[in-house]
Amino acid sequence: MLYDQRPCPLDITITGAGISGLSTALALSNVNREHKITVLESNASLSEFGAGVQLYANSTRLLDKWGLTSSLPKVAFQSSHMSVRRWQDNAELVSIMNNPTSTWLYEWPQWQIYRPDLQRVIFDRANELPNVNILFGYSVADMNHETGTVYTAEGSTIKADLTVAADEIWSKSRRCWNYARPCIWMVYASASGRVVLIGDAAHALLPHAGQGAGMAMEDVASLAEFVGFSTSKDNLSTTMSA
Ligand SMILES: Cc1cc2nc3c(=O)[nH]c(=O)nc-3n(C[C@H](O)[C@H](O)[C@H](O)COP(=O)(O)OP(=O)(O)OC[C@H]3O[C@@H](n4cnc5c(N)ncnc54)[C@H](O)[C@@H]3O)c2cc1C
Q: What residue ranges define each of the domains in the chain, with the CATH number in brackets?
């Protein structure tokens, strides 16, 4: 990249207003407030369902970068340790030190949060941004993975310079590309560079790994770096495959 060139404003569509989709809206807006970002969510509102999510230093440092640390104490807490026990007899198998050990070792704390609360915190921040438009009741039915055009079940056709597919483990966006199962890497090698898979849509983990949301946020941070360096719509292909 030539450093005297300005990053190029893009029309960006994100499919799915989950952890990765909303984080993407926030992070891409942070790198360029001139991006026009539309998030399509199939549900009529934010989901109230979910489990407790452990957020380790790899993700808490990103939440801080995106300006969300001050929102966490109202809905999350820092545990001293996690005790893993055998279900038959409650015998402790391992005890993992969380706080303040995480900060000593990795500079950032561990937080425990209910998944809908995490989604709400990210949503509230993204929804404040003038260049982010979050649309509920828009369900992705089909996608042209060369042009990035999204077709919804409700009959809308949405064109964009870049489409980020963040529509979870059963990703309709991924299935439209004839991928029967998740990919191992987040960027799909479409010739146009206009479509990217992230989060559970790209690499869902079993819940006990405790890193699905964390890895989704790492995808988002990487994507923001790439998109932040894009100086032309025409070089998206080169930028995204770098
Ligand atoms: C029991 C359990 C415990 C977990 N514990 C942890 C943990 O401790 N730490 C951790 O890091 N991770 C944990 N995870 C994983 C974490 O919750 C996921 O990895 C994370 O939510 C993935 O984010 P995502 O945005 O890719 O998907 P989601 O958060 O699932 O969001 C996807 C969004 O896409 C929408 N959508 C789906 N289809 C369409 C469509 N066709 N059109 C438009 N929108 C669509 C959905 O409605 C949803 O809002 C856990 C998961 C489970 C189930």
A: 11-47+117-240 (3.50.50.60)
